[in-house]
Amino acid sequence: MKRLFILFIVPLLVFTMNPFQVKADDKRTIQDEIIYDLLVDRYNNGRQASSDQVDIHDPYTYNGGDIDGITKMIEEIEEGGFTMISLSPVMENAVGGYHGYWVEDFYEVEDEFGSMEDIHTLVEKAHDLSMKIMLEIPLNYVAKSSPLVEEHPDWFKEVEVTPAYEATEWLEEVVAFDQSNEEVQAYLQDVALFWMEEAKVDGFQFAHADETDGDLLETIAFELKKKDPNFYLIATTLQNDGDVTHLLENEHLDAVANQEFYTAANEVFTKPDEPVSKVFEETSLTDDIRDLLYVDNLNTPRFSNNFGDNGRNRVTTWQIALAYLYLTPGVPIVYQGSEVPMYGPGYPENQYFVDYSSADPDVKDVFSQMAAMREQYKQFTHGDIEHVTSEQGMSLFKRTYDDRSIYVAINNDSESHTVTIDEVDEEFQLRGLIHDDTIRANDEGEFLIGMERESAEVFIIEGRKGFNWAFIGFVAGVFIVFVGAIIMLSIKQKKREKQAGK
């Protein structure tokens, strides 16, 4: 029976396969990931244990989130289409250091978050779901109360950076490592190797990397990659206008935060009638797969808050934003709660606990749908990009991999628009993956792509479809053979039973 099932199903799948679909292979790279950026203390309380430091009514101290809480909710994260979780720093912190940046001991896990065993359990659960876990590693600062400050006073200097956001007021309680000191360099390199080996995670997010000495970061990244070339290394920034030249020149980093994208995306997608082409122009978009793309983070106002202030619909706006975030070259990193969505004009509201009880299922569906398309079509993770045409607030771009193209249309206008393309053979048709629209060539061999106001669509190229009699005949023939084989097996079984009864 099993052989008959295989003979029936496999040819059917092969026959119906879309020849223009290129699926991602099993060997993942950073470009295949969608990162969920998570603030451990503000995600989920798994242990429900009491603590003198926890006060759920005080947004400036621990609120009770822990590693076990993430493990308990990881399937929820996976269902949103996320393939990797980046945890905020979990090292032992000073009192009140819920954010993880007041490090007192670089070699211990903060008790409020759990233990190293909890991290191992999370990593194992993630791997069971084909997900990965990344740790945020702070290399620049240490709490003023850390024993290191008294033991090695020559290792430190005053913080020189001026905070750009209220959320970075934690800088007032830290001192900076003097990263020109060779002992500091050796110490921080050992810290990085320790967490790589002990935590068993799949990568690091280097926090505030724009403030890290370039030579030191390159040395640490080199040593980590030497131990495991597949260990992911990404770099995020403290300031949205920081100097990232040394990060872009570091060939050992897999992705670097694209600050220009953050600014352009918030200028364009948070209000209607802004041309999508401005994002292309202002970010100098190429096929740079090392861009780490984001629309907000724990320091900035929430993206949902920004467009909500302008009266935009949360479902359609997230669809437009994700069409760009997920389907252009680079690595998307999404701040926790975006899929709910959560709001917050700034600190501390932008760091509130994720409230799944108020989730909008339509928004969650948008995240899942966009992630599914990104995973299914390799054009979106490894293909070239070309800006095809624009019409006011509407833009059409093309992703191509292995000579097979997919079109993405985004209309950010408050009015409908139509664009024309003539580069597709009229023997084919365009089929929309989001709204299931079908577009065929007109008498001039042109394809007219009309888009409703504030919408996005993804078009694959496929053969024109009428009644596919060859396919129908094939299915009917296989079905007849399948049924006939079952009847024959049934007759033989009855004969054996009859003979056994004699």
From TrEMBL:
Keywords: Membrane, Metal-binding, Signal, Transmembrane, Transmembrane helix
Highest taxon listed in the record's lineage: Bacteria
Family matches, as SMART domains: Aamy (SM00642)
Domain Glycosyl hydrolase family 13 catalytic, first and last residues per copy: 37-374
Signal peptide: 1-24
GO terms assigned for molecular function: metal ion binding
TM region(s), chain numbering: 469-489
Keyword Membrane set for record: yes
Coiled-coil region list: none
UniProt-recorded name of the protein: Alpha-amylase
